[in-house]
Amino acid sequence: MRIKLLIFSFLILVFTTVEAQNLTDTIHIEEVKVLAKRKVEEAGLKLTRPDSMARIATLTTSLSELISEYTPVFIKSYGRGSSATASFRGTAATHTQVLWNGMNLNSPMNGIADLSLLPVFFADDVYLLHGGSSMAESSGALGGSIHLNNQINWDTNLELAGLFETSSFQTRKTFVKVLLGGGRLKSSTRLFYEGSENNFPYYNHGVIPQRNDTLENADYSKGGILQEFYYRSFNSEIMSLRIWFQKSDRNLPQLMSYEGSEREEYQKDDQLRVQYDIKKYTDKFNYHFFTGLNSTILNYYRATPEFNFVNENSKSKEKGFQNHLRIFREFNEKTYATVSADINYYEVQINNKIAGEGYKKERFETSLLFNWHMKPSDRFAAFMLMRSENYDNHVEPFIPSAGFEWQVTKRWPLLLKSNVARNYHKPTLNDLFWLPGGNPDLLPEDGYTGDLSLSWQTENSHFSFDNEITGFVSFIDNWIVWQPSQSGAYYWEANNVKEVLSRGAEYRFSADKNLRHFKLKSGGNYSFTHTTNQNAMRSVDKSRGKQLIYIPKHKGNLFAAASVKNFTLKFDVEYTGKRYTNSSNEESEFERVLNPYWLSKVSLDKILEINSFRMNIKFTAENLFNEDYQSILWRPMPGRYYSFSMALNYKK
User: How far is CA 258 from CA 208, 261, 262, 450, in A?
Assistant: First the structure.
């Protein structure tokens, strides 16, 4: 009944706003094209940037949903509202770096960043660097890196925005933005809150006999504030101060196969990020400096109330102080250089109150980068890069990368580009010091990667088409794996045990068609990833040459949208291929293979503009064909569900 009321309310709002369109005059002007030269720093890099339509479509979601739906990167999700991590080109979650305005958000303890806790609403620009291209911004991203940036609009003196969404499973979302200021000083404030009972029905394949069931103990809430101040001086300097505080409370449901006593399990995350940033731009020279704090407190609790028994009660604290200086210099129209330095300090502590175990450690890191850019002609550009890193008295003096891009013909925009790199990933502090199982003798994971891309585009006044195909290969030695202890004790330990070979291809395209009364837009991504363990520790080891667990060979997404008279109808489809859950790639009664699945959604939205006010009303049906699927073994995912949202915006 609630869904029917939402649909009815949406239709009433849509049709009652038709007459309101007459309140504004429409002036038809000729199309204006804005052209800009590609940044020389991006030459030879494999970069994916979701367009404005993708970011608007996912504005009420987390970063994990934006990346899953509009990029070739695979997202490993533990369920709606639960932890989500990214896997580039068949690598592990720890091999993906997430940076916010240049600050690394990965945990120094476990090496990952939970994308479900990063709202798209808090980012103005999102882009991905694949493989060795990530070396231009950071090290350690053996698979790739995700970049979130904040930007200020100096042309707007006042902006008020509110976005409200309600959806199935008693889910509520609220987003607010306030922008104030003049030509020199601006303030931007963003707030969000999301809460859900999250008690959706599903078919339980994990018990005998199989049955219809309802997910329990899966409710969550999260909220945060991002406050930014910007000052533009008279000597072309822009200074900014950003403060991001966020809280998350999540109850953790049991596996669908669990039939024991009822458990109480939850996780609470408190995160504080502060950054002071200064940039200076001139025709020949610019620099960027920031200093920042990234602090996280995580509480994890698990108990069996029936027996009044607490299984685990732990608290971990992380503090990271990061400092970065980057200088870019143009010597002439053909030669450029970038020099950067990083000095970072981390302090972590974990305490398990039940077992009486834990550790407290510090880590000090330094990094130097030199990047030489060359552009001998308008059709050719190249770079050579060298990094050196130092951590825990361990020195990596030579981490090189090189790449180029070449417009093959002068007449046609056919672009060939490539890059090769050596990269490495240092062990996390948990890998080294976790009790029990940490291994202080671990070696860094050593990676070599290369890719080759061919892109081309065509456009006229009514049609545009842009696409790119990329082939890649990477080899990672000393891959760190947690496995049962060789001593016979009942715990897992970290070791350098794998040599992993990953190879495959990626394809993306976007197309626009302008007709007389409406506009068509489409886009998509596809990736083929074959990632295998190339060594076998024992003769009976069946994992050699097998696809790594939870890495799909095939992953793709596609969307198509049609707009007419401020109405937009959009259809999205996402495909995830088969995934193995054991290293031998075998299936039995105890070891399951996760079946491939298609996820589809359709949305209809209406825009109403009256002077400086803009209203957007949107109705969405998710998992349109009620697909029964699992992203993680025995973690249920919801069937078809619905959402209704309204966005209000005022600019002056």
Answer: 11, 9, 9, 44
d(CA 60, CA 164): 9
The 10s digit of each residue's pLDDT in 419-461 is 999 999 999 999 999 988 899 999 999 999 999 999 999 988 8
Output b/e per residue, 388-421; b: 16+ Cβ within 10 A: ebebeeeebeebebbbbbbbeeeeeeebebbbbb
The answer to whether 143 and 476 have CB atoms below 8 angstroms apart is: no
**pLDDT tens-digit map of 90-131:** 999 999 999 999 999 999 999 999 999 999 999 999 999 999
Phi (first) and psi of residue 74, to 5 degrees: -85, 130
Of 622, 535, 524, nearest to 167 (Cα)? 622
The answer to whether the CB of 379 falls within 8 A of the CB of 416 is no
Residue 178 near residue 159 (C-beta atoms within 8 A): yes
Count Cβ atoms within 10 A of the Cβ of residue 596 and give its class: 0-12 exposed, 13-18 middle, 19 or more buried: middle
Of 7, 1, 21, 9, give the one whose Cα is nearest residue 614. Answer: 21
| 3-class DSSP string for 219-277 | CEEEEEEEEEEEEECCCCEEEEEEEEEEEEEEECCCCCCCCCCCCEEEEEEEEEEEEEE
Query: For the chain, what is the radius of gyration of the CA atoms?
Result: 25
Question: Do 385 and 42 touch, CB atoms closer than 8 A?
Answer: no
Q: How many CA atoms does the CB half-sphere of 255 hold within 13 Å? A: 11
Backbone angles phi, psi at 611, to 5 degrees: 55, -120
As a whole number of angstroms, the distance between CA 650 and CA 615 comes to 9
Residues 473 and 447: their CA atoms lie apart, in Å, by 11
Closest to 147 measured CA to CA, from 156, 160, 138: 138
Q: Which of 11-15, 97-101, 253-257, 644-648 has the lowest mean pLDDT?
A: 11-15
Q: Which of 579, 573, 584 is nearest to 536 (CA)?
A: 584
The two tokens of residue 381 are 């550009």
Q: How many CB atoms lie within 10 A of CB 302?
A: 17
- Are 19 and 26 in contact by the 8 Å Cβ rule? The answer is no
Rounded Cα distance between 297 and 247, Å, is 10
Q: Beta-strand (E) ranges in 262-393?
A: 264-281, 285-304, 309-330, 335-352, 357-377, 380-391
